[in-house]
Design brief:
The complex is a heterodimer of chains A (about 500) and B (about 325). Chain A is built from 16 helices and 25 strands. Chain A is an alpha/beta fold and about 500 residues long. In chain A, β7 and β8 form a beta hairpin. In chain A, α4 crosses α5. Chain B has one domain: ABC transporter involved in vitamin B12 uptake, BtuC, CATH 1.10.3470. Chain B contains 14 helices and two strands, in the order αααααααββααααααα. A two-stranded antiparallel ribbon of chain B has the order 1-2. In chain B, α2 runs parallel beside α13, α7 packs across α11 and α13 runs antiparallel to α14. Classes of the chains: A alpha/beta (about 500), B mainly alpha (about 325).
Chain lengths: ~500, ~325
């Protein structure tokens, strides 16, 4: 029997980064197929190709043995492929019923039949067991309710292939149970379901088949239960990463902590975060993507409101009310700097010059009575360019003309100009080449040696192990494990990030 | 709580902007009528309705692109251009009048279609594209009618600006007609919902397979049509045409203010033309109030500005609740 779906030789590059390389996937009717892999293994890209959102550079897709082209999401919907995405595809200002009926709503005389639409929405919501009013605005719903609506929206389209990409990540256990009940029903009705989740116990519970991906390639496909969770984790990690990291200093830092965080919480997204960093330490933030690591960095940088708990810098409690308030001139002993996640929107003013970008954050340091002292600025910029090895034709050209790696160096340089004592890094090596990555690792160690305290979030586990003295593993807005020294292995990181704590040096809480 | 009561609560929450604007208008207009030397006579109401209906139509036109987080700076020019065209074509025999009306409306559709093509297919930013086309449409108006004048079929004009049964101003009937024939069906069509979807989150709309190009194009076409209807009504009020640049500009800017006062977000995704209509009447009533309270004409612009600022501030309270400061800058 030909499989319902067959993807073969799918390749996709983003600039120099290889997202998929000859990947394949086969799904059969009436089965739930789990797709597994680390962050950046290519799962999401593969699914986006299938949903018509990403156009592959090469490869073929067959439905029922017939080749299909999927130039856009609308084409995928017509082919019966419906996805529930990790980033929600709901329209926040519209009502739940409008969202569920957004594609081919029931019409009467060419106009949307509100009553029929509402009935349909109510049925879809009842099917997933959701207690959501059809007239509620999606914007006003909690994240877990939105995910339920998203799933109801997908079901209302009568798909042949249903894709759930991390669609259960924000759901409560009771919601997951009712969604799984629906998935089993749909499977028994003959649908092919593709299921992506980072929660291994969910996969063990629901999947019939599993496919593992690593570095954009397909590794193996097997029946669920044929491999142990440990074997699966080994497959996801692989054994092919090479060491590119500078050595750690021999002696452990012992100075009193530069940053001490106590019971930090924020709107249910961060829960009772406790930790400290000493000067000279590099502390990693690990775990699955989107478990609250970014929110923690933003909270420490003063970009969130309604943060509870206390933060002490050099033993003194501080109030972090805005990025301005965390700068060196306002905090004793140097400020807090955040190297943001998206350098193009939050880090750089792309059309402005390298000079302007570098000196923005520190402009007060070389200003007198509001006027910029060009000579002092020039000296500071020259030494920063030298320190970071920024390769630019001139400092007056637009920063947009630089390569990704050099742009990232400018972002980092901009904050180093303020001589921060605490440096928060939000996935700084994403999308930059290997050479620049190694320079950045070296830089982190240099900064630590100069007694800065670094908090380093990365989605790349190898990086955390290679660069950090300690790693805090996040799960659902809380720190679930702290790994140090020997315990800091890729296996332990992956296991605790998936809520499968086998052994960790200091396990902090019950795994969820 | 019963299902019906809950439905009502959600409906009220979704209609907060229009209801607020309607309440504001009712209060202001009541004060105006009480203070007016002539009282609530049919004549006073008719004049107020005629002035308000013109802005309400232009502002309805503005609302539709704004729902997609677009903007149409050419609505005032299309309004003036249709006025000039109508003062040439809508004259003479009844048949000629009918053809003239059709031609004026078609010209509005055409202007809107050009805007839509530039924004959707030319990928120009709406504010710039319509700034340029607005200047062009004004140019056409000037070319049609270099000096004020022209002619319009008087029976038709008197009918359009009179009162229905001496009580209901006919301009309000035209406005209601635009709501019933154009706005409500649009609001309930898949195309109209697509406009809300785009303004709410263009990415999510794309991911949901919403026809983005078609829906955006339609918003500008409808804006052109509604502006042309306003131009036609203006011709009936003045019995003539005039390529008045000041008039066009002030209607464009007032239309944006009316949209905001009426509870439609300039970021798109929420609001609607009903609120805008009340927003337009609020704006018109402000200047009427200044008149009946005998405010010095020289200070009127200042007062107008202050009252406008207060009215639009009502809509910005949500920003006080933002949890992630970065969201303020999105």
């Amino acid at each position: 029997m030909t499989p319902l779906l067959r993807m073969e030789g799918i390749s996709k590059r983003y600039g120099g980064v290889r997202a998929l390389e000859g990947a394949r996937l086969e799904c059969e009717r009436g089965r739930i197929h789990a797709v597994l892999g680390e962050n950046g293994a290519g799962k999401s890209t593969l699914i986006k190709v299938l949903a018509g959102v990403v156009k592959p550079d090469a490869g073929a897709i067959e439905l029922d043995g017939k080749p299909v082209a999927l130039p856009g999401p609308a084409a995928a919907h017509r082919a019966g492929i419906v996805s529930v995405f990790q980033e929600l595809s709901l329209l926040p200002d519209l009502t739940v019923a409008d969202n569920i009926g957004i594609i081919d709503p029931p019409t009467r005389w060419g106009l949307i039949d509100q009553r029929a639409q509402r009935r349909r929405a109510e049925q879809a919501l009842a099917r997933v067991g959701a207690d959501v009013h059809p007239l509620a605005r999606v914007r006003d719903l909690a994240l877990s309710r939105r995910q339920v609506v998203e799933i109801a929206k997908a079901l209302a389209r009568d798909p042949k292939i249903l894709i759930l990409d991390e669609a259960t990540s924000a759901l409560t256990a009771a919601d997951v149970a009712s969604v799984f009940g629906v998935l089993r029903e749909l499977r028994d009705a003959g649908l092919a379901i593709i299921f992506i989740s980072h929660r291994m116990h969910e996969i063990a519970e629901i999947a019939d088949d599993c496919s593992v991906y690593r570095n954009g390639r397909h590794v193996a496909t097997f029946r669920a239960g044929a491999r142990t969770p440990t074997e699966i984790v080994e497959m996801m990690i692989g054994r092919d990463y090479s060491s590119a990291f500078p050595p750690r200093p021999a002696d452990k830092p012992s100075a009193p902590p530069a940053l001490k965080v106590n019971k930090l919480s924020w709107t249910g997204r961060l829960r009772d975060i406790d930790f400290e960093i000493r000067p000279g330490e590099v502390v990693g933030l690990g775990g699955l993507d989107g478990q609250g690591q970014r929110d923690l960095l933003l909270a420490l940088f003063g970009a969130l409101t309604g943060v509870r708990g206390s933060v002490a810098v050099n033993g003194k409690e501080v109030r972090l009310s805005s990025p301005r308030s965390t700068r060196g001139t306002r905090l004793e002993g140097g400020g807090i700097a955040l190297i943001p996640e998206d350098r193009k929107t939050e880090g750089l003013m792309l059309s402005m010059s390298v000079r302007d970008n570098l000196s923005f954050a520190a402009i007060e340091q070389f200003s007198r009575a509001g006027m910029i002292d060009r000579a002092a600025e020039e000296t500071a910029i020259a030494s920063m360019i030298k320190l970071l090895g920024i390769r630019a034709d001139g400092i007056d050209g637009p920063v947009a003309a630089l390569s990704g790696g050099n742009q990232q160096k400018v972002v980092i340089g901009k904050w180093l100009m303020t001589r921060p004592q605490i440096i928060l890094l939000n996935d700084p090596t994403r999308g930059i080449d290997v050479g620049t990555k190694q320079e950045l690792y070296q830089l982190l160690r240099t900064l630590a040696a100069e007694r800065a305290a670094l908090l380093f979030y990365s989605t790349d586990y190898a990086e955390l192990i290679g660069c950090c003295d300690r790693v805090l593993i996040f799960y659902d807005g809380a720190i679930v494990a702290e790994l140090e020294g020997e315990a800091m292995t890729e296996h332990n990181i992956v296991a605790s990030a998936h809520g499968l704590v086998s052994h960790a040096s200091t396990s902090r809480a019950e795994p969820v | 709580m019963t299902g019906r009561a809950q439905d009502l609560r959600y409906w009220l929450a979704s209609q907060r902007g229009p209801l607020l604007a309607a309440a504001l208008f009712a209060a202001m207009f009541a004060v105006f009528l009480v203070e007016h030397p002539a009282g609530a006579s049919a004549n006073v109401i008719n004049t107020a309705a005629n002035k308000g209906a013109l802005l309400a139509l232009v502002a309805m036109a503005q609302t539709i692109p704004v729902l997609t987080s677009g903007l149409d700076l050419s609505v005032g020019s299309v309004f003036v251009m249709s006025n000039c065209l109508a003062s040439t074509l809508v004259a003479g025999e009844p048949l000629q009048v009918a053809l003239g009306v059709a031609a004026v409306l078609a010209s509005g559709l055409l202007c809107g279609a050009l805007n839509g093509i530039l924004v959707v297919f030319g990928r120009l930013q709406p504010i710039i594209a319509t700034l340029a086309t607005g200047a062009m449409y004004y140019g056409v108006a000037l070319w049609l009618r270099p000096t004020p004048g022209g002619d319009v079929n008087e029976n038709f004009a008197d009918f359009m600006t009179g009162s229905l049964g001496d009580a209901v101003p006919f301009s309000l009937v035209v406005l209601a007609g635009a709501v019933v024939v154009i706005w409500l069906p649009y609001r309930k069509s898949a195309l109209g919902r697509a406009a809300y979807a785009i303004g709410s989150s263009e990415q999510a709309a794309y991911m949901s397979g919403v026809p983005i190009a078609r829906a955006k194009f339609a918003t500008y076409v409808l804006a052109g049509l509604l502006s042309a209807i306003a131009g036609l009504l203006l011709t009936c009020l003045t019995y003539s045409g005039e390529a008045n640049a000041l008039l066009g500009g002030s209607y464009t800017l007032s239309s944006i203010a009316a949209v905001v006062v009426g509870g439609t977000s300039l970021y798109g995704g929420s609001g609607g033309a009903i609120g805008t209509i009340f927003g337009a009447f609020v704006l018109r009533t402000i200047s009427d109030l200044l008149f009946v309270f005998d405010i010095d004409p020289l200070s009127q612009p200042l007062f107008l500005g202050i009252v406008l600022l207060l009215s639009i501030s009502l809509g910005s309270f949500r920003l006080l609740k933002v949890k992630k400061r970065l969201d303020l800058y999105r």
